[in-house]
Specification:
By secondary structure, the chain is an alpha/beta fold. The protein is built from 16 helices and eleven strands. The strands form two sheets. Strands 1, 2, 3, 4, 5, 6, 7, 8 and 11 form a nine-stranded mixed β-sheet that branches. A two-stranded antiparallel sheet has the order 9-10. A hairpin with an 8-residue loop joins β6 (307-321) and β7. α7 runs antiparallel to α8 (161-171) and α10 (193-205) runs antiparallel to α11 (216-237). The longest helix is centred in the middle third of the chain and has 22 residues, at 216-237. It comes from Brevibacillus fulvus. This is Erythromycin esterase-like protein.
């Protein structure tokens, strides 16, 4: 189709909105076991607030069991303890200081604070096994996960403590520098793989429940899983190619599956990640680069009706990002979308915000791969040429939320630590 035909198709199919109405989307989600909610940036308020509205509705109407996000397991677990009422403090901003690894703004922000306060209130009075959790899927927290394991095993005087000490001593020379460890492990055969695998096996075989916290064993097992996969990730990262990306997304899927197992046969999960993770890689040029992702893997592992992916996009606005890894955050302008991109055609179809469901018109959007904007934590708005991913929209997602003009989210002040 040419551009005019695409615009006409969008105009026929779009639900327009000022305030987002979850009803059409939730009806389309049906009885899905996993709902994947994307974002086109890591710093846009509307992406967070609309996902939060969808999340609240799914929890209230369809009894979803947990939220899992593109964040570190240890820091997310602190927030999990807060939303379940297991921490003494009621100050959510104090709790969000746990998100101190750069980029801190992804989860230490006022939008997440509001969702966390709602979830804490929702969970109040529910039995432990009914409380909705908040968990981290990512693989970066190698040292933080080892620290958590050490603290718990010392506290419980566990026989696995000696194995954990071997893990800690193996990583200790690298001074919490993932790149330094990766170089050494990749090129000088000084990897700590054997130690972390042994620790993971021991924790899996000898699960212990801490009184008053039925998740203690899960917490230790997932921290050990992070340590194992982070060790592989940092080794692969210095060698380049798609392997490090694939290790990371395979890890995320493994965590999702373990969370489903933990929450029982009827468990259902809501996943918050960037579009590049939740949108099926096979519908983009990622597949040509040898990259897989969470959306693809979950669709391969579960029935079609069990996984529902929602992509997000914007035409213009502002965003929180940085100009280099580890550099201070900035409130940046997001320029108008490039001509002939999906975002450009959604804009040309009318200035309203839009929701498109692909359940009945998937074939119409399968005809052509068209550029779709992706903004990361590092961003150069004056040069966006590399920010557009060729995408067959209805193959990548089951629905798409478009916000015409977006605003930067509101970060909390957290002192960042680099990994």
């Amino acid at each position: 189709m040419d551009k005019k035909q695409w615009i006409a198709q969008i105009q026929r199919d779009a639900f327009t909105f000022e305030q987002f109405d979850c009803t059409p989307l939730v009806n389309a989600i049906g009885e899905a076991k996993l709902v994947l909610l994307g974002e086109a940036t890591h710093g846009t308020s509307e992406f967070y607030t609309i996902r939060a509205e969808i999340t609240r509705t799914l929890i209230e109407q369809k009894q979803f069991s947990f939220i899992a996000v593109e964040g570190d397991w240890p820091s997310c677990y602190v927030l999990n303890q807060y939303v379940k009422g297991y921490l003494e403090t009621e100050d959510v901003e104090e709790v969000l200081q746990a998100f101190n690894r750069w980029p801190t703004w992804m989860w230490a922000n006022r939008e997440i604070a509001e969702l966390a306060k709602w979830l804490r209130a929702y969970n109040a009075g529910l039995a432990d096994e009914q409380k909705v959790g908040f968990y981290g899927l990512d693989v970066y927290s190698l040292w933080e996960s080892i620290d958590e394991i050490m603290r718990y095993l010392k506290k419980t005087n566990s026989p696995e403590l000696e194995t954990a000490k071997k893990v800690f001593s193996c990583f200790e020379p690298y001074q919490r520098d993932g790149q330094e460890y990766g170089i050494s492990a990749a090129y000088f055969s000084s990897a700590c793989e054997e130690e972390v695998v042994q620790l993971l096996l021991e924790l899996q075989q000898k699960k212990r429940w801490e009184q008053g916290d039925r998740e203690a064993a899960l917490n230790m097992e997932l921290n050990a899983l992070v340590a194992r996969n982070a060790e592989q990730y940092y080794r692969a990262m210095v060698q380049g190619g798609p392997q490090s990306w694939n290790i990371r997304d395979i890890h995320m899927v493994e965590v999702i599956n373990r969370l489903l197992d933990f929450h029982g046969k009827q468990a259902k999960g809501i996943i918050w990640e960037h579009n590049t993770h939740i949108g099926d890689a096979r519908a983009t040029d990622m597949a040509e680069e040898g990259e897989i992702n969470v959306g693809q893997l979950l669709r391969e592992q579960y029935a079609a009706e069990e996984v529902f992916a929602v992509g997000f996009g914007t035409y213009r606005g502002t965003v929180i990002a940085a100009r280099g890894w580890g550099e201070p955050l900035q409130r940046m302008q997001v320029p108008p979308a490039q001509t002939n991109s999906w975002e450009d055609m959604l804009h040309e179809a009318g200035p309203e915000n839009k929701l498109i469901l692909f359940s009945e018109n998937r074939e119409a959007y399968r005809q052509q791969a068209i550029g779709h904007r992706a903004i990361g934590v590092v961003y150069f708005p004056e040069d966006e040429r590399g920010n557009y991913v060729p995408t067959i929209l209805s193959m990548r997602y089951d629905a798409f939320v478009y916000v015409e003009q977006t605003n930067a989210l509101t970060p909390l002040v957290v002192e960042p630590v680099l990994v």
